[in-house]
Amino acid sequence: MKMRQWNTRKWPKISVLALSLALVGQYNMAYALGGQGDRDDASEHTRTPIKHLIVIIGENHTFDNLFGGYKPRHGQTIDNLLSEGIINADGTPGPNFAKGAQQQASDNAIYMIDPVLTGPYNPLPQPATTYAIGQPPRVADARFPADLPNGPFQITKYVPYDSHTGDPMHRFYQMWQQYDQGRNDLYVWVDKTVGIGPQNSAPAPTPADTFQGSEAMGFYNMSTGDAPLFKAMADHYAISDNYHQAIMGGTGANFIAIVTGDVAYHNTDGQPDMPPANQIENPDPQPGTNNFYTQDGYHGGSYSNCSDINQPGVAPIMNYINSQPGKAFNHGNCAPDTYYLLNNYGLGYTASGTAKPLGADQYTLPPQTMPTIADALSAKGVSWKWYSGGRNDGINTTNEYCSICDPLTGFKSIMTTSLKDNLQDVTQFYKDVTHVDTLPAVSFIRPFESKAGHPADATVPDFEKFVADIIQRVKSDKKAWASTAIVITTDEGGGYYDSGYIQPIDFFGDGTRIPLIVVSPFAKKGHVDHVYNDHASILKFIEENWGLKPLSARSRDNLPDPIASRRNPYVPRNRPAIGDLMSLFNFGHDRDDLRAAAFHPHEGNDD
């Protein structure tokens, strides 16, 4: 969550029909063109026909929030609000609406992830404005009724699709409570009782007013015309209805997970140490309150030592993880005496590479030394770049730039070497994509802030248009398009309700389901993929395609591919397990044939 307002930009109108035609055009051309490119480096030596992977990362929407009303193509199945009968196609409450009902609870002693339920809301609290552009701040949103039925509601029944709406809470310990051990019934109660935590910039939430309502229960409805561009992409390419944010919580931790498959920690020169006391999380309720945390917020606690079961908040999560079938990954993936960053702090370097000051009043993550996918690609000689909207030259950044969404600025191996030059502005991507020879093998793109889809300061239609524009730019070079896969997702769910399964992997997550769309000549047409994936699946795809090893002994790209049961394809039988996205593609070869593909001698993994 970034409590700022941002400049918006004008975008050309894009016809849904025109986009749909563009998306399906040239579908088979890739097989004829081959798309090898003219370069002769490690970037070209791949196990699949994909020579260029582009990952576009928007912000803060769950799968149900965007795809809850999506009807897949004939022969495909999906798990969403509509298929579960929670809603009808017109967005009204469905026959199983009660499955999405939200409960109230009591948690006035110590932190619990399954507090005692005290009864359902009737009706839902009125959604709040939080800091939505164009609305009075931190009040009930008068555009929505005060008597909403207890369950998910269609946002666009009350406001236009391009409207700014309130921003639900999305923090680590709060999300574990909202999940309620798989019941998904405490989204509103957690928002109303603690919100984003007491240690926040003024005005700070109080137990009497956390500036939150039931905005977490809102969804967009593709069956009534919402998100038409994303719907067109889903109809003609492939989506996952079982892809998850890697970490419970918000933007910072999940962007770091995208490049590491791991979690950042407080350190000095790479050695774990203890953060300042005011930066350590304590989700135990303040005396006399119901769930209003003691130490939490954007100017407060964000670190936890989950190796110590006696630390506040740790035992309930670890007990739940250890109670699940299978074993927690690496015993919870909590190294001894290590304080992990669970939420949003600033990263260790400026965009230009200057180390930032540290201290109790800085709320800055010290420089990290764990391996990243950028390090692995560079060591193998595979080209890559991370493009950020508003980054400019790294010195003159704009208010369209999200520093915590530029995660490699937190890493010493990047920011103290020439690799920092690979962190560039989105406008450079527009130049690089004009020819197959200048397009990196792996590109990560974080949109301009006003185009990233973040509630309150951006909108979904602007994110759609940004993505559609990227697709059109790639398709403008037929040779590049013929060898490219574009993966579209969000960093995390933004605190929105989702009805889907979450696999307990380790102390940190997984988190809620989020959208994932694959646009490529090789994507399975109109396919809805059920394989369990999270952000580490992107790493696994890169590693499998370009012949890399997992990043470290503790990174989640070590996890096996899921083995699904016939009765429930969403829950891996061999959990914890995470897929590699390969099941969203049709390469015309058996999967084992791809894995056994011959490599040139110099393509072997470096030891």
Task: Describe it.
- The protein has helices spanning 16-24, 29-33, 63-67, 172-179, 187-193, 228-236, 251-260, 314-323, 373-380, 412-415, 426-432, 460-475, 478-481, 535-546, 591-595, and strands spanning 52-58, 103-106, 116-120, 153-154, 218-219, 238-240, 243-244, 267-268, 271-272, 282-285, 293-295, 303-304, 340-341, 384-388, 423-425, 442-446, 484-490, 516-519, 527-529, 533-534.
- Strands 15-14-16-1-17-18-6-19 form an eight-stranded mixed β-sheet, sandwiched between helices. The chain has a two-stranded antiparallel ribbon with strand order 2-3. Strands 4-5 form a two-stranded parallel sheet.
- It has a domain at 31-68 and 245-265 and 349-462 and 476-603: Alkaline Phosphatase, subunit A.
- It is built from 15 helices and 20 strands.
- Mean pLDDT is 91; it is low at 1-40 and 592-607.
- The longest helix is centred in the last third of the chain and has 16 residues, at 460-475.
- Helix 1 runs parallel beside helix 6 (228-236), helix 4 (172-179) runs antiparallel to helix 5 and helix 7 (251-260) packs parallel to helix 14.
- The radius of gyration is 23 Å and the shape is globular.
- The chain is 20% helix and 11% strand.
- The protein is an alpha/beta fold.
- Residues 1-32 form the signal peptide.
- Keywords: Hydrolase, Signal.
- One of its GO terms (molecular function) is phosphoric ester hydrolase activity.
- This is Phosphoesterase.
